[in-house]
Write a structure and sequence with these properties.
It is built from 13 helices and 12 strands. Strand 10 and strand 11 form a beta hairpin. The strands form 2 sheets. Strands 1, 2, 3, 4, 6, 7, 8, 9 and 12 form a 9-stranded mixed beta sheet that branches. The N and C termini lie far apart (51 Å). Helix 2 crosses helix 12. By secondary structure, it is of the alpha/beta class. 40% of the residues lie in helices and 20% in strands.
């Protein structure tokens, strides 16, 4: 009797094991889209209890590095991989655009509660260390009627490889010859001045803690941390504050999306376009050694297009334009 009971118990244990078998996908990369990715992975898990998607928000540079070395199953970045990085990856990598977001100049200026206006040249000169106080004539000229203090400006920037840095410096390199011929653009640049912190979270923390600070962070981090952020003059000469509508207006200027989805929309034309906007991408291997993982990833990506896109606006990200989503769906079909 005891043997029969033990046998049945082993069978039951085995069946439970099968029923709870998990497929785990591990990813790493950009902090810029982390709020929406965290929500998506949680919601997907509710619909698919047998799948666990783990994501390390370590910055785009770290995500590209870990994907290239095979440490993770997928990466994420706000700055597209370079041709050299793609060649070094040793396998074909797809850039799958997921949402769009905006990088904002966020600041902590004593006595100033309202929105400040910035031109591209002024932002570049602040981050070059040429403008060092908040009452500099270049800033006061853009903000008539605002009483700006003589407080020293403290520049806050990323210390890690960062897609948010890529977006911001990509913009500065388009509007400032001095920036283009100096630090230029990249996920990591040689900052002329300032203090570094890891992740959007780290830069937001520096801005909150230090009077006189200015940094660049993704819009959701400014909103969630209740940090003031300013409007930025676009290529049409209009000062635009980051919003879903202004980000979508920038995305709409892409008339011909490249086949590999690597595109920059900073300093986009159009008076309604916010000039520091960008797509963000998941970096997905085109071929998977583990067929089950590959199947789950394809299912998740299709879920992201069907169920995930409507969630984006609740976290102040702009969903993909329909024509881009249609092209992404076609690319997903080629993942093996």
């Amino acid at each position: 009797m005891l043997r029969r009971f033990t046998f049945l118990l082993l069978i039951a244990t085995a069946l439970v094991g099968v029923a709870t078998a998990q497929t785990a996908l591990n990813g790493a990369g950009a902090t810029f889209p982390y709020p929406i990715y965290s929500k998506w992975f949680s919601e997907y898990r509710k619909a698919h209890p047998d799948v666990q998607i783990n994501y390390q928000s370590i910055g785009s540079g770290g995500g590209i590095r870990q994907l290239s070395t095979g440490t993770v199953d997928f990466g994420a970045s706000d700055g597209p991989m370079t041709d050299q990085q793609l060649a070094s990856a040793g396998r074909k990598i797809y850039h799958i655009p997921t949402v769009l977001g905006s990088v904002v100049p966020a600041y902590n200026v004593p006595g100033v509660k309202g929105d400040l206006k910035f031109s591209g040249k002024v932002l570049a000169d602040i981050f070059l260390g040429k403008i060092t106080t908040w009452n500099d004539p270049a800033i006061t000229k853009l903000n008539p009627g605002v009483s700006l203090p003589s407080t020293s400006i403290i520049v806050a920037h990323r210390s890690d490889g960062s897609g948010t840095t890529f977006i911001f410096t990509d913009y500065l390199s388009k509007v400032s010859p001095d920036w283009a011929s100096g630090p230029n653009k990249g996920t990591s640049v040689k900052w002329p001045t300032g203090i570094g912190a890891k992740g959007n979270e780290g830069v937001a923390g520096l801005i909150r803690q230090m009077e006189g600070a200015i940094g660049y962070i993704e819009l959701i981090y400014a909103l969630q941390n209740k940090i003031n952020y300013g409007s930025v003059q676009n290529s049409a000469g209009t000062f635009v504050k980051a919003s879903l509508a202004a980000t979508t207006a920038a995305a709409a200027t892409v008339k011909s999306m490249p086949a590999d989805f690597r595109v920059s929309i900073t300093n986009a034309p159009g008076k309604e376009a916010y000039p520091i906007s960008s797509f963000t991408w998941l970096l997905i291997p085109a071929q998977w050694k583990d067929a089950n993982k590959g199947k789950v990833m394809v299912d998740f990506l299709n879920w992201m297009l069907d169920k995930g896109q409507p969630m984006a606006q609740s976290l102040d990200y702009a969903p993909l334009p329909k024509e881009v989503a249609d092209k992404v769906r076609a690319t997903i079909k080629t993942i093996k």
